[in-house]
Design a protein that fits this description.
mainly alpha; Outer membrane efflux proteins (OEP)
Length: 265
């Protein structure tokens, strides 16, 4: 933006010195150029605030040094590959573990139907002198009576928990699948938009600015046309940066969704 503003100021000065332009055009161009100082100060303050927040989150003694380059992220897998790896996602692994625990709870509750067998052995001697030692053994078998009052209720409650855990897993799997498909579609759209902007829209806007600036220098258009085409260049440049940012965020999200958790025994 500073470069474009400098070119606009230079063109306005050339026309003014040659008595083909007005002083108002020079002042307008200089005003647009000098107002960048306020924008730069604002951006610097926002950057310092963001770095301070990052330091607080990461518990760093001082703000970190951020490299002035885009992250080098690997290309995401295809949608088919990502969906095939979705079962290993840590969130689904956690839901699977909860489902298995609930199913084990059903098996534990069913044990209430089994009779409890207790074996007891005693050995002793009577207090009377000359009495022989004695040994006794016994088997105690307890049978469940009225299972509907306790066992059936326990099993039903355990089955309800297992079914609820399965529903949670299914919902989690469906939500992650939809998120993965939506993110992949957004990634492909952003990739195409970024490529189109950088190869077609932004170069065309720059050519339009150069042509308008040349026409202004020749006295064929007003300065407002130059500033308007200059704004279009800046808008497309900013849009390109936003596409690149969103593309990196989508790639990071796809990487998270394709993350494989540890295999549960």
């Amino acid at each position: 933006q500073e470069q474009l503003q400098a070119e606009s100021v230079q063109a306005a000065l050339i026309l003014y010195r040659s008595a083909q332009g007005s002083q108002a055009d020079v002042l307008r161009a200089q005003l647009a150029r000098d107002s960048l100082a306020n924008d730069i100060s604002k951006l610097q303050a926002e950057r310092a605030s963001d770095l301070a927040q990052i330091a607080q989150i990461l518990d760093l003694p001082e703000p970190p040094s951020i490299e002035k380059q885009w992250p080098n992220l690997p290309p995401p897998p295809t949608l088919a590959q990502a969906e095939a790896r979705l079962s290993g996602q840590p969130l689904l692994r956690s839901a699977q573990a909860q489902t298995r625990a609930a199913q084990i709870g059903v098996q534990v509750a069913k044990r209430g139907y089994w009779p409890e067998v207790t074996v007891s052995v005693d050995y002793g001697q009577d207090f009377y002198p000359g009495s022989p030692n004695w040994l006794s053994a016994g088997v105690n078998l307890s049978l469940p009576i009225f299972p509907g009052n306790r066992q059936d209720q326990d099993v039903a409650a355990a089955r309800a928990k297992a079914l609820q855990a399965q529903y949670r897993y299914d919902d989690q799997h469906l939500a992650l699948t939809q998120q993965e498909r939506a993110t992949f579609a957004r990634y492909e759209a952003l990739k195409a938009q970024l490529e189109r902007t950088e190869r077609q829209l932004l170069p065309t806007a720059r050519d339009a600015f150069s042509a308008t600036l040349a026409a202004y220098a020749a006295g064929r258009v007003e300065l407002s046309a130059v500033l308007r085409t200059q704004k279009e260049v800046l808008d497309y440049a900013l849009t390109s940066l936003q596409y690149r940012r969103d593309l990196a965020l989508s790639a990071a999200e796809l990487d998270f969704l394709a993350t494989q958790g540890a295999t549960q025994p």
